[in-house]
Amino acid sequence: MSLLLTDRITGTEPPPRHADDETLRLECGVFGVWNVPDAAAITALGLHALQHRGQEACGISTFDGMGFHSEKHMGHVGDAFAGEDLVKRLPGHSAIGHTRYSTAGGSVIRNVQPMFADLVAGGIALAHNGNLTNFLHLRHKLVADGAIFQSTSDSEAILHLIARSKRGRVVDRFIDALWQIEGGYALIAITNKKMIGARDPLGIRPLVLGDLDGKPVLASETCALDMVGARFVRDVEHGEVVVIDEDGVRSLKPFPPTRARPCVFEYVYFARPDSVVNGRSVYDVRKRMGARLAQETAVNADVIVPVPDSGVPAALGYAHESGIPFEMGIIRNHYVGRTFIQPTQGVREFGVKMKHSPNRAALAGKRVVLIDDSIVRGTTSVKIVRMVRAAGAREVHLRSASPPILWPDFYGIDMPDRDKLLAAQKSLEEMTAFLEVDSLGFLSVDGLYWAMGAGQRDPAQPQFTDHYFTGDYPTRLLDREIAEGRNDPTERQLSFLVSA
Ligand code: AMP
Known about the structure:
Elements: E1 4-10, E2 26-33, H1 39-49, E3 57-63, E4 68-74, H2 77-80, H3 86-89, E5 94-102, E6 115-119, E7 122-132, H4 135-144, H5 154-164, H6 170-180, E8 183-191, E9 195-199, E10 208-212, E11 215-219, H7 222-228, E12 231-235, E13 241-245, E14 248-252, H8 265-270, E15 276-277, E16 280-281, H9 282-296, E17 303-306, H10 312-322, E18 330-332, H11 345-355, E19 356-358, H12 360-363, E20 367-372, H13 379-390, E21 395-400, H14 422-425, H15 428-434, E22 439-442, H16 445-451, H17 467-470, H18 478-483
Parallel strand pairs: 1-4, 17-20, 20-21, 21-22
Antiparallel strand pairs: 2-5, 2-11, 3-4, 3-5, 6-7, 7-8, 8-9, 9-13, 10-11, 10-12, 13-14, 15-16, 18-19
Adenosine monophosphate binds next to helix 13.
């Protein structure tokens, strides 16, 4: 038996955003390292590089040969896992970590990961990036079957499924669980003998394998490998399970072969620009988005100004393509978190002011093209446009380096329902008036595919998960169907793909 020896949890819970909102939509980063001294310290570093994937809470679990140790905290990695005593607090040669941002507020600390379970054969700690689209269905079945959930997180359902599997070996139990879950996921687990990584059948969420002086590392993004000095080995493939133990790294493919559909929003906004995701430099793709945007939405102007930081690479591409100078017309204050981090709309709006300041020297008297990576609710844009005008800009032309966002997400990107998505609610003309801009332009879906270097979008089998812009969801949405009365929750359905 390998029990949880230490379990430290700190933090206070923010108030729920919607009292009735039980499902948690997550944006997260995961990291894991196997068989190295000071595994917790390396994991803390790796998580630090993944901080942009979630700033609300973080956690690390280690295994020290005897038992597991775990710490979960609200807040940033640098605050939670600082201190020379970190390796004493979290001893062990294998570790996994998680950085997390949830958009629903209820019971936050209970949902912080990694999650731990004591199985018959020993303990397992699990870190999950992504979102299951059949979680409520699974939870309904599991609870009916006697499972006692400690959290409202969909990741806990995976642990219950592993625990209840009738198979003997932990990897088989793990795969048994994968067969029952649907949606987007990158998972890293450690047991007393192994580290296991898995990516959903379509590869919606990213996961990479690295090598740290001959020891395997798993991480959401390559920037975390760079941070710890690990060499990039390869992407974990869509639908692949990698099993790491003293025999090395083994690859299993438990699902029927399917064409990958990685999430395009990783390139638009979510991943760090210095990461290489599925073989593509995020920075290069963003610059190409900007260049194509310049071709599609050209306008006479004096300066190209990014909304920092996420709009910077696209603005560089736009400036280069248009020949109009790039200027830092907005200065970002780096000592506040991302706009979306604030759990309520009121605080979020306030957050925009705290985060960005106009730079008069670059704006006064100028015709300005403002570039952001995306427009979601429009909250950021309204504030920024006003700010830029107040600083003396003569004209403000807003450009989004991604197509209009029309549909919500269910796979681990925070994207609200249609009633809150600006482009889903208003025409281009109405948005132009609402945002108080002289003109407004979006990248086309064709342009996005061009920037990805993917040729034309294949409507029969799209190359990417791109429902934000197209409404074309890559899997069925069982929980949604049940909520809308289109499916019977008691029905036993284990097939995981609609379009495969
Ligand atoms: P909004 O103010 O709602 O229009 O949000 C747009 C801003 O939020 C842009 O500056 C984006 O860089 C950023 N953004 C876009 N998608 C997300 C997301 N899923 N999570 C957090 N921030 C986002």
